[in-house]
């Protein structure tokens, strides 16, 4: 069976390459002026899911930049939780007294999006989208303090894109366990389920949230939202589904190889398992990257090159890692090593030589 691999889009990779170094944010004409004010609120010292709050805000902004979103949406990504919200008790700006200061910094339209995103019910927003409750014109009615709150079509589109970036940046198995079945969160006593609370846990990729991101992506195809924002280059330009069953199977298969729960003497079983993981979920780079290394180890250079290119395409499409054990830029760096080795027809025959591999271009 042919694997669902994807050719590398050089233009997309060039955009991603520009975001690999930490300096990209300081050089961004839209975001750089805001950065000192945000950093002054100690976001680099606050814990947040798989890293710090700074890591999270920058990671969300990075995906939105890669997805070529307009200025106000990118600023929303960088500031999306600074007034706090129901999920994050990190209030960096007081909505009662500092809205004017943030408006002066980013402009009224961007601040309005930040305030609305922080104060609306995000749980309700996601649930209504998943329930296909968008109006014919693309607007969406929520409830706030017992009163209807109508989001305009542009606000809906902006919040969908930011929600996609927000989720892919932060979600991994620890949140699968403590925030089970979001947006229908299951409340469980911590004393009984103490093992799930041990942060960061095994750091498996999420087994359920990529399916939800794919459904948010498909909501951007609503006729009332057409043309309001650039479509992120994930899930085939937000056109292809990922079923919950396929996501769960792909994560389990991928993790079985990572945990070495397969025969370790020969490559055939691990390779077959990873190929199956890619068939179930061809939209993330890490399984394809591991598959490329397995192919290289077996001397299958042509297949390794195709898998490495497809992995690099997926990493370039997301701008964030699915497997949170290492950061996105590290996944990209190792994938480029694999691609270089496949193209040149060589791979170390001794384990110690793996420590010496380096990118030459």
What are its keywords?
361 residues, mainly alpha, Hypothetical protein af1432, Serine Threonine Protein Phosphatase 5, Tetratricopeptide repeat, 2 domains, two-stranded antiparallel sheet, two-stranded antiparallel ribbon, 17 helices, 4% strand, globular
In this structure, how is the largest beta sheet organized? Answer: 2 strands, antiparallel
> Roughly how much helix do the residues carry, as a percent range?
40-55%
Mean pLDDT comes to 94
What strand line-up does the widest sheet have?
1-2
> What's the order of the H and E elements?
HHEEHHHHHEEHHHHHHHHHH
Gap between N and C termini? 34 Å
Count of DSSP H/I helices: 17
* Count of individual domains: 2
Give a structural overview.
By secondary structure, the chain is mainly α. Helices cover 51% and strands 4% of the residues. It has 17 helices and four strands. It is globular and about 65 Å long.
What's the short story on this structure?
With 361 residues, the protein is mostly helical. The protein has 17 helices and 4 strands. The model has no long low-confidence stretch (mean pLDDT 94).
């Amino acid at each position: 069976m042919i694997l669902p691999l994807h050719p590398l889009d050089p233009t997309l990779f060039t955009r991603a390459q520009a975001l690999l170094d930490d300096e990209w944010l300081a050089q961004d004409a839209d975001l750089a002026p805001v950065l000192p004010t945000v950093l002054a609120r100690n976001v680099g010292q606050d814990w947040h899911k798989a890293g710090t709050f700074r890591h999270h805000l920058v990671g969300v902004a990075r995906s939105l930049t890669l997805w070529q979103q307009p200025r106000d949406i990118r600023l929303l990504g960088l500031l999306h939780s600074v007034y706090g919200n129901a999920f994050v008790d990190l209030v960096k700006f007081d909505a009662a007294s500092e809205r004017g200061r943030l408006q002066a910094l980013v402009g009224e339209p961007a601040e309005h999006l930040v305030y609305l995103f922080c104060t609306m019910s995000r749980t309700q927003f996601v649930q209504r989208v998943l329930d296909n409750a968008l109006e014919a014109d693309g607007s969406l009615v929520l409830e706030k303090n017992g009163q209807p709150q109508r989001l305009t079509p542009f606000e809906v589109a902006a919040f969908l894109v930011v929600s996609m970036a927000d989720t892919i940046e932060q979600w991994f198995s620890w949140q699968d366990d403590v925030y089970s079945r979001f947006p229908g969160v299951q409340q469980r006593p911590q004393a009984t389920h103490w093992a799930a609370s041990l942060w960061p846990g095994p750091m498996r990729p999420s087994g359920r949230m990529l399916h939800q991101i794919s459904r948010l992506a498909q909501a951007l195809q609503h006729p009332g939202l057409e043309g309001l924002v650039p479509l992120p280059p994930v899930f085939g330009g937000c056109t292809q589904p990922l079923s919950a069953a396929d996501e769960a199977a792909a994560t389990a298969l991928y993790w079985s190889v990572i945990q070495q729960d397969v025969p370790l003497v020969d490559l055939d079983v691990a390779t077959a398992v990873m190929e199956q993981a890619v068939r179930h979920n061809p939209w993330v780079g890490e399984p394809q990257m591991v598959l490329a290394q397995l192919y290289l180890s077996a001397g299958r250079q042509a297949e390794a090159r195709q898998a490495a290119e497809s992995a690099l395409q997926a990493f370039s499409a997301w701008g964030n890692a699915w497997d949170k054990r290492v950061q996105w830029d590290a996944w990209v760096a190792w994938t480029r090593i694999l691609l270089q080795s496949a193209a040149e027809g060589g791979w170390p025959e001794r384990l110690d030589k793996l420590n010496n591999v380096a990118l030459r271009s």
